[in-house]
Amino acid sequence: MTQTSPGGRFERHPRLTGAGLLAGALVALELALRLFAPVPLRFAHAMRQVHGYSRVARVDLRPSQSVRLRIDRSDGTPLFDFRITTGSEAFRIVEGEDQDAPRAARYVHAIGDSYTMGWGVDARLSYPARLAQTLAPELGVINLGVDGFGAIGATAKSRALAEHYPPSAAVYLFCPNDLDDDVQAAAVARRGHAAHAAYEAFDLFRRASYLAGVPFALRYRLQFRAGAAGMETGQTGTETNQTETALEPTKLLLPEPAAPPAPQEQPSFAALREYRDFLESRGARLVVLVLSNQHESLMAYRFCKEQGIEAHLFEVPPGMRIPDEGHFNALGNAAVAALVQQLLRKAPNGAGS
Q1: Strand 66-72 to strand 285-291: parallel, antiparallel, or no bridges (unpaired)?
Q2: Is position 135 within any domain?
Q3: pLDDT tens digits along 94-112
Q4: 124-166 pLDDT, tens per residue?
Q5: How far apart are CA 252 and CA 271, in angstroms?
Q6: Of all helices (H) and strands (E), which one includes residue 152?
Q7: Angle subtended at Cα 274 by Cα 292 and Cα 52, rounded to the nearest 5 degrees
């Protein structure tokens, strides 16, 4: 009787061998990506280093990080190229500072999303940093802006730091997409403990792996894909070729809307009401800067007026924005800082302006 010789390892253990080959291929691909990562993938990986999962706001900055964020145009020129550095309490600080914020008796809490944080420009050019230069030494300013925040994350971050940085005033820069961001944040907050733990584990994996960043790199590349058109202003995020002395901050303010839409109940508005009460209990002032006259902005503006919250509609023109991207450039941040300075130096005027 003829015996058949045993087959190869793959024939004997096809699943195990296949899994080993796949694992080896993934490891090789991970090493190749680390050695030859294109700009979008380096951008995605850097984003994961400085951001983390939040059980309250869906996303937050991580403490004591410093990363360079760069995305190029299709012609190879940088759309933006800047650095985000966070202090030990997980908010953006100016590079080179020895501590999270200069010590002061009271502080202005600059809260909001990427527009407050100063997305696209170095920290020293962000509006909170420019504001700090004009208000010091009477008041400190802390930049609590985080890209992806709505009112829920913005107000929660301020409240968590209020003991260490007692607020004299808070300036919330509302953007139209804050309403959607807060709907997502509220959904995240309703997750159970096991779901939170799973998302935190996945977040840790994404920070450790370049391969996991490929889908996000592709998304960012498509999102920020742009040519050289729009560079006619001559400004990138970190440059300014206009004189700041020519700025008239009040020109950013929009006229009173004739009939703003009635506000609907939103997680953002509930968070603002609670935050207003929190600040009032501490003798602190709340100023809401509402960006643009889009439907969501007008609804938020009317909500603030009805709640007795000081609010101001404003817009930043294209020449003060990063071309092809939309965030405030250096000049735009300086203009917003000058506007906030003027508003804070005036007596509170109740609801609206």
Answers
A1: unpaired
A2: yes
A3: 988 756 667 888 999 999 9
A4: 999 999 999 998 777 999 999 999 999 999 999 999 999 999 9
A5: 26
A6: helix 151-160
A7: 70
Query: How many CB atoms are located within 10 Å of the residue 28 CB?
Result: 10
The two tokens of residue 31 are 């090493």
d(CA 169, CA 163): 14
In angstroms, the Cα distances linking 351 to 40, 276, 291, 310, 322 are: 44, 12, 16, 4, 31
Task: Specify burial of residue 6 (Cβ count, 10 A radius: 0-12, 13-18, 19+).
Answer: exposed
* Chain segment 156-195, per-residue pLDDT in tens: 999 999 999 999 999 999 999 999 999 999 999 999 999 9
pTM value? 0.87
pLDDT at 352 over 80: no
Residue 316 lies in a domain: yes
Q: How far apart are the first and last CA of the chain?
A: 100
- Secondary structure of residue 281 in the 3-state scheme: helix
Report the alpha-carbon distance of residue 205 to residue 310 in Å, rounded. Answer: 43
Answer yes or no: are the C-beta atoms of 43 and 220 closer than 8 Å: yes
Q: Which residue range is the domain that position 237 belongs to?
A: 33-345
Q: How far is 272 from 309, CA to CA, in rounded Å?
A: 9
Query: Is residue 353 pLDDT above 50, yes or no?
Result: no
What domain count does the chain have?
A: 1
Closest to 340 (Cα-Cα) out of 292, 262, 285: 285
CATH number at residue 207: 3.40.50.1110
CA–CA separation, 108 and 137 (whole Å) = 12
Longest alpha-carbon distance in the chain: 104
Structure tokens at 148: 């992806």
Q: Is 227 in contact with 75 (CB distance < 8 Å)? A: yes
Q: CB within 8 A of 347, min separation 6: which ones?
A: none
Pick from 122, 178, 115: which is nearest to 325 by CA? 115
Q: Which two tokens stand for residue 154?
A: 């913005």
In a domain, 6, yes or no: no
Residue 225 lies in a domain: yes
Quickly tell me which residue has 């995020």 as its tokens: 237
